[in-house]
Specification:
mainly beta; 8-stranded mixed β-sheet
Length: about 375
Amino acid sequence: MKYGLAAVLVAIVVIAAVLLTNPMSSLTPSQTSAASFLVMLTDPPTVPAGTAWLNLTYSNVTLHVVGPDGTSGWLSVNASGTVDLFKLENVSQTIASTTIPSGSAVDRIQFTIASVWAKVDGTVYPVTALSNTMVISIAKSQVNQTLSGALVDFNPTLLQIQATNSSEDVVYYYVLVPSATATIVTSLSRAQVKVGYIVELGQNDREKLVRVVESFSKNLTIVSASLSVNGNVTSLNVTLKNKGDVSFRIFGLTLQGIFNATRTWKARPLFVERIYKGTVPFRVNGSSLIPFFGINDAGMKISSLTLTPNQTATLTFSGVIELQPDVSVSKGPPIIVIPIVSDMYAIRLMDEGFQALNVTATP
């Protein structure tokens, strides 16, 4: 487990999933036989200190299957449930089980994040996911055994957004930034076919996941970035390049570090409330970035940017980063979050790759 969301570094988290490149289709029951195929989750999330549990409810699990004859389509699996991500350290838990034609390949998995709840410092909070749909590519996806599965290294980050109400009391909101890679595993037992079954993760499977991360880290990279401040206006530019041979769909970024936080009241002048140590998530809308705190914008339509092989794209934001208060618990003007000029920040590309790039906030 990692505890460091209030670090000085700025992390830009690219939620990138392999794009669905063919229209949605389905495999009929008559096409599925012979081989049992499982979907398993492993690894705990990165969370703030004081987190007791993090429950994720999933649904709509589908597999993209390429049959032995070359035909392909999406197989819907009747699977849904709730997983405590805290209990996945060094173990895997089966979340879906189905059958596929023997000799097929499963190269992508998709599932919906239906809801997320967290218990932090004794209080249960609703959590808003930066993206509620995960599409995960699978390396070396050919299946030749009668019992195999996809091991999904699901390693999301729980972001704690700190704000204050009209009485200057601290209130918290939470956003989940999903991240995942996957690999095919074959050393399974029949007991694992049961959804909910938990088993200790073997060393071979650990090594497979490490190799997958290393492979994907070469695909989607940060080419360059800049961060500048003019008064209370922040400008962020991040250029990405897809060096791989498959397309990626980018959902969002996060900006993490130390900021000045200001608030303007009608009855008193502008003042610096405090140093804001936290994370500013952004959702992608075309090539634009939109600040997203998961408070009053939970119903925001999710969009994405498709990055094809060898394509370069620049994501930009220029404006005031405002943390709007939740009207149910707080009244008053928004908190304006401003990076600190001359501070050094680290820009980090995560999800299917973990590159870093240093940048200084400039005036």
